[in-house]
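Input.
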Amino acid sequence: MKTPCKNPNGLQNMATIVDSKTRKAVKFNSLDKAKEHLKSKGYRFRQAFNFKEDRSMIYQGRFGWVKVSATKDYLNKTSMEQGTVWNIVKI
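Output.
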């Protein structure tokens, strides 16, 4: 029979694991829309990492840090059109 974890660090680690599984990316078709969304949420630009096709930016806000990155993906769920999609993920 399993006993519940009594170590507070163990409980904190389990909460972190559960939180990391529930994070979902917010997707935008244009960088302007993504920046506008972040500005409305109160995030500020901190750093950019660009190398060839790999483009990503780091923003900081009251609630933590987020990463904006570009990927090649479907533009919407109903079409087969592919293009650059900007993903916002909390880190």
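The longest helix spans residues 8-22.
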